[in-house]
């Protein structure tokens, strides 16, 4: 059957996948130690689809927060620098933009919830003013309109008696309430991408569950994408669509949350799961991961996890593995000579 030209064009457009809202390519971030530059994040790459939540997980010191700061253009200078790579937000390359151009994007199209709200909020300004400030800067609202919208946002993130507490200072709020204020600030301008850097780390499990539920509801309501940084795999199961496991500045495994939990492939991912307490088992032996993440100026020549890996072979010490798709599932990638050799993937 022959379709009309207009319908054929519409069908062709609808069949094309939507481009990612955030795309990272070959990102390398370096820090200067004793006069030399060392990569803390090396050749990092991933894409974030619209309305998707990607969890970035790994031990402390593996480069998760530096990745988020790089996306925001907040790598501390002059001791740090973005050595190479591309960061595209809705097709716009953020690398190379000057500070005034980045200031128009931060808090507007791209927002971040920082790890510790007490140090992120200004202690001498009221919470209402701090939420309203972004609306005045990025949306051009006058003081009255900005205050009204800020109050609506505080109510949306479920601050109790928001109108009465609008002129309170951060020290008047509990840790969980301060984190809700940070979420309100981040969502003020309806960003396309939200970076959440361990937003529940300092909270007890009850408040943690409330904040996670709030983030999930707000993500759906606002239609935004989220990069959620954490070291807690239990949180990952509750909130993520896909998972990127990070070790020593590199992504070592990338897959859907279902695949990661059903079939963890990289030895480091397996080790993380073995260290998690299970409530569905009467008895269990938790296994710690021997050793520690190497310092950026003392990285192994081959696989960065090799000194701690139970599957280590001679090739692991001599050659750095590539992030390669698994033969059984091309959407599931791992950086391992034993489990996902890149040469086998290329031959297939």
Defining key terms:
single chain; 348 residues; alpha/beta; Rossmann fold; 2 domains; eight-stranded mixed beta sheet; four-stranded antiparallel beta sheet; 14 helices; 12 strands; globular
Account of the 3D structure:
The chain has 348 residues and is of the alpha/beta class. It has two domains: 18-109 and 192-276 and 286-311, P-loop containing nucleotide triphosphate hydrolases (Rossmann fold, 3-Layer(aba) Sandwich), CATH 3.40.50.300; 122-188, no CATH class. The chain is 36% helix and 21% strand. The chain has 14 helices and twelve strands. It has helices at residues 5-15, 64-72, 99-105, 117-120, 127-139, 143-156, 162-165, 175-187, 205-222, 233-239, 257-262, 267-274, 314-318, 342-347, and strands at 22-33, 36-48, 53-57, 80-89, 92-93, 110-113, 193-197, 225-230, 242-247, 250-256, 324-325, 333-334. Strands 6-7-8-3-9-10-12-11 form an eight-stranded mixed sheet, sandwiched between helices. It has a four-stranded antiparallel sheet with strand order 2-1-4-5, with helices on one face. A hairpin with a 7-residue loop joins strand 11 and strand 12 (333-334). Helix 6 (143-156) packs across helix 8 and helix 8 (175-187) packs parallel to helix 9.
